[in-house]
Design goal:
The complex is a heterodimer of chains A (106) and B (236). Chain A is globular, with a radius of gyration of 14 Å. Chain A is of the alpha+beta class and 106 residues long. The two termini of chain A are 23 Å apart. Chain A has a five-stranded antiparallel sheet, sandwiched between helices. Chain A has one domain. Chain B has 236 residues and is of the alpha/beta class. Chain B has two domains: 68 residues, no CATH class; 153 residues, 3-Layer(aba) Sandwich (Rossmann fold). In chain B, 38% of the residues lie in helices and 21% in strands. Chain B has eight helices and ten strands. In chain B, strand 3 and strand 4 form a beta hairpin. The longest helix of chain B is centred in the C-terminal third of the chain and has 16 residues. The N and C termini of chain B lie far apart (62 Å). The relative contact order of chain B is 0.10. The chains are: A alpha+beta (106), B alpha/beta (236).
Chain lengths: 106, 236
């Protein structure tokens, strides 16, 4: 089982245990983005988190979006330029872009 | 994701059936597509994602879809339930491989030495005949014993296995190729065997050798430049 497959299994396990769960999946990348399309992160309303959709740069923002999606039930397609001002300051201009789809596990 | 889609996906994966989860963007409508699901534009794109083992977004006449390809795990058949195999099994599991250890010597092939992995105690040729290595299977021989390694390599060469490795020095490997030549194999077959197995890391300990094998397996799978080798020569 690959790493990304495992996240879905983890998410399904949380759901089966009665947690409210959102799943975030990288759908498209441009340039030198750290994780390929298909990479996943699962988040629960209770604050559990597994997996990743970047090298740690956007997980916080994706977790916020996941909480919104869990509250509203509406999926979101998020668009991130990996390079931001802060990354530029510390010289981490990796220059990639990613799209992340966020959905609930009903 | 609806419970029906999640259950369908879990069922296909448990049965080791290739399947694609198609998600319409940005709306989120989802469909499960099995291999050979027809000739619609979406089914063709899904088949391509499975063949390339690559997930991604496609733009079709009816809009944008994200296709997540779920192929069954790659398999690694390890012939020889030896010390290096004990180090190799957990590394292989870590990168998501489905591992089968083959060794007819029951004192080696014990559940205690190999917990949580499929162990077969058939002779390697019989085991490989049963396993039918395909283009998503690798075979590594670790026994150093021609009685066990040779039949395994013979069957691996007759299969579609994408990675074939044999532990042993250059000298051992040259002698091995000479024996395989007597079994009817030629230079084109020999080019498929990685011997000595593993990337040239200068590995010494069992875990280091296991690491070099896993590293080479990944390099071959991902078509990395590191995977390219010169031809090995058979002993005259």
């Amino acid at each position: 089982m690959t790493e990304a497959d495992d996240i879905l299994t983890v998410a399904a396990g949380w759901r089966a245990a009665g947690e409210q769960v959102a799943l975030a999946t990288v759908t498209e990348t441009w340039g030198s983005s750290p994780r390929p399309a298909g990479s996943q992160m699962a988040v629960t309303a209770s604050g559990k988190m597994a997996g990743s959709v970047s090298g740690g740069c956007i997980e916080g923002a994706v977790a916020d979006a996941a909480r919104q999606t869990m509250a509203s039930g509406v999926p979101q397609l998020l668009d991130f330029g990996v390079t931001n001002e802060r990354a530029w300051e510390v010289g981490l201009a990796c220059g990639g872009k990613v799209k992340v789809f966020v959905e609930t596990l009903a | 994701m609806t419970p029906e889609v999640l259950a369908g996906l879990a069922e296909a994966r448990a049965a080791k059936r290739p399947v694609v989860l198609a998600t319409r963007l940005p709306g989120g409508e989802q469909r499960l597509l099995t291999s050979g699901a027809g000739d619609s534009e979406l089914a063709v794109a899904a088949q391509r994602a499975l063949d390339r083992d690559e997930s991604g977004t496609v733009r079709l006449a009816d809009g944008e879809w994200f296709l997540r390809a779920y192929n069954p795990p790659l398999r690694l058949v390890i012939v020889g339930a030896v010390h290096i195999a004990q180090a190799l099994v957990p590394m292989a599991a870590q990168i998501g491989l489905s591992v089968i250890v083959v060794d007819p010597r029951r004192s080696f092939a014990t559940d205690e030495r190999f917990p949580d992995v499929t162990v077969m105690t058939e002779w390697p040729d019989e085991a490989l005949d049963a396993l039918v290595p395909d283009a998503r299977t690798g075979v590594v021989t670790l026994t150093h014993d021609p009685k066990l390694d040779d039949p395994a390599l013979d069957r691996a060469l007759k299969s579609a296995a994408f990675y074939i490795g044999a532990l042993g020095s250059r000298k051992t490997h040259a002698a091995r190729l000479a024996r395989l030549r007597e079994l009817g194999h030629g230079d084109a077959d020999f080019a498929r065997i990685r011997g000595p197995v593993g990337l040239a890391l200068g590995a010494v300990t069992a875990p280091e050798i296991a690491l070099s094998i896993i590293a080479e397996f990944v390099a071959v799978r991902r078509n990395a430049a590191l995977a390219i080798r010169g031809p090995a020569k058979a002993a005259a």
